[in-house]
Amino acid sequence: MFFVVKTNVYCFNPLITRGIQLVISSTELGVSTGSAEKSAVLLAGDYLNKISGEQIERECRRFLDQGCTKIVVDFSETDLVNSIGVSILLGVIDSASSSGAKVVFSKVRQDTAELFQILGLTNHVTLA
Amino acid sequence: MADDTNKLVHAFGALADLGQAVTDRNNFQETIRTSLHLISGSLAIMRAGVARYSRFSHELNLVAVRGLGDDFPLGFSLCQEDERQFLINGLYPIEVDQARVLPFFQVYDVSLERKRIGLFVPLVVHDELVGALFLGEKADGTPYSSYDKEIVCSMGRHIGVALAQRNMMAELERRAEENRKLYDDLRMTYKDTVRAFAAAIDRKDKYTEGHSVRVGKYTEIIASELGWGEGEVEGAAVAGYLHDVGKLTVERRIINAPYRINAKESAELNRHPAVGYEILQAIHHPYADVPLAAKYHHERIDGRGYPDGLYDREIPYIAKIVSLADSFDAMTTDRPYKRRRAANEVIEDLRLNRGKQFGPEIVTAFLRGMFKELTGQSTDRKFRRLLGREYMEAEGIVPMLQDALSDVPLTSRAFATLEH
Q: Mean per-residue pLDDT for B32-44?
């Protein structure tokens, strides 16, 4: 069985503003077989590395409350991840783990992936 | 080896960021939240908390948490033994598993266990416990290495400094607040004493009971209308309350004489400004001009006053204000030898004597205060309260005040401010 679940995608777009700006759009995501898997994509951007990145955690919790079972963090616009970023990602992992949801880090740069591995984040997430 | 280097670089980055976060002028909560992120992120610690120690309540109160959940206690009580041990230990992390002997770990054993708190770091600055870090398991599941503990120790030192600064600020604020209350109490005591003095002065003269208090209030009105600041207005009122303090030394029969007093008696009475000055000068007032107001409140700007016959600018400004307030009260209250004058006569008198007996801008300020009250431009009812509603609302008073105010040069207010 194969079907598509429609969900909202919230992007933290650093090109729009330096503050927190949510760009809401609707797209087709979360392709799954066998059962409906509701997914959400969080764009990490640069915000991850600042205290304002806590917004990502809040959005993650909101998605989980809406029944998302898979959180995808997109690192395509993230050059590096500092300690604040790691801490925020741990918050995302913790929230997802409490809700029984999976976390996927996508489009992670090689050096960032190595850091995640050294710190043990890869014990809790899948890199894609 | 490469892994260790990357880890070290990552931790050093966190340490540098932490130093900046602590020295930035962010608010305290944000600084601590950022610090907690940095310490958690440097070693990928899954859950952690920063607590601030209160030496008054002997409690560690959590000020920032990550992943500890709602069921983790927000406050931890410490006994003397805990505090003593933490101070001896200094900043070095304590492994919770090996510290069960301390009362603190026995009491909170279940909560710490449930959240898998592995390390407890007392934050000690200048031999004073200022807070603590609660650190849970790491994401890689390994125990804290000595290298990890060194990192935690260095970061804890920074966070400790931020907490110590906050404690110091809180202490300063508390002391400033205490001082402010003490000052307010002293000021209140001073004002009460001044009022009591004014009442004592007024008791001497049965016909002019309440004179000093009224002069104080009129002086206050004028100073406010001249745009003086709160403290200056208060000082002016004090000068008004105490202007006749010298009368305490004048014989009661002279003050209360129901006839026009003779030259000798007049000389005796006219000594009261100088005597008042002598009395008030010996007191350290918060307002410097109070003794001068007593000494010169019978001077006139045309030089025909006493005791020194000073002219206009030679007369201290506060004395000019008190002089007007004093004369106004004399005209608007019954005296042993004459009844009080009607409001329109008094206003006319002030108008005619503007620039002769009284400073023109002072008369203007006073009449403006009266006009504002009568036309509802101000919510004050001071004149009505002091003189009676019927007296103040006599027919024709408002147009008269309007006339008196309209023939005043526009610069009078500016002049008053400049001269003051």
A: 91
Q: Where are the alpha helices (DSSP H) in A32-75?
A: 54-65
Strands (E), B208-345: none
The Cα B68–Cα A72 span in angstroms is 24
Query: From CA A36, how far away is CA A39, in angstroms rounded?
Result: 9
Among all residues of chain B, which has the CA nearest to that of A116?
B44
The complex's ipTM works out to 0.74
Do A90 and B67 make contact, defined as CB atoms within 8 angstroms?
Answer: yes
Report strand pairing: B48-54 vs B128-135.
antiparallel
- What's phi and psi for A3, nearest 5 deg? -150, 170
Burial class (CB in 10 A: 0-12, 13-18, 19+), B370: buried
Q: Return the pLDDT at A28.
A: 32
Q: Taking the C-alpha atoms of B361, B356, B243 and B339 in order, what is their torsion angle to the nearest 10 degrees?
A: -110
Is the C-alpha dihedral spanning B13, B19, B21, B24 positive or negative? negative
Question: What was the pLDDT predicted at B195?
Answer: 86
Angstrom distance (rounded) from CA B223 to CA B214: 14
State residue B419's pLDDT score: 46
Where does B2-174 sit in CATH, by number?
Answer: 3.30.450.40
Instruction: Say yes or no for a CB contact (<8 Å) between B46 and A90.
Output: yes
Mean pLDDT of A57-85: 91
More confident residue, B182 or B283: B182
Q: Are B335 and B208 in contact (CB under 8 A)?
A: yes
What is the pLDDT averaged over residues B137-144?
Answer: 93
Assigned CATH for A2-127: 3.30.750.24
- Entry pTM: 0.60
Segment B407-416 shows an average pLDDT of 50
Q: Tell me what the mean pLDDT of segment B320-341 comes to.
A: 91
Task: Identify the CATH class of B204-419.
Answer: mainly alpha
Q: How far apart are CA B11 and CA B147, in angstroms?
A: 11
User: Any alpha helices (H) in A5-81, and if so which ranges?
Assistant: 54-65
- DSSP string across B332-350: HS-BTTBPPPPHHHHHHHH
Give the Cα separation of B207 and B297 in Å (integer): 20
Interface contact A82-B139, CB threshold 8 A: no
Q: Which residues of A touch B67 (CB under 8 A)?
A: 90-91, 94
Shortest CA gap A98–chain B (Å): 10
Residue in A54, A80, A84, A89 to test binding to B, most B beta-carbons within 10 Å? A84
Tell me the domain boundaries of chain B: 2-174, 204-419
Nearest CA to B242 out of B208, B219, B265 is that of B219
Tens digit of pLDDT for each residue in B102-117?
Answer: 888 888 888 888 888 9
Nearest to A83 among B41, B47, B67 (CB): B41
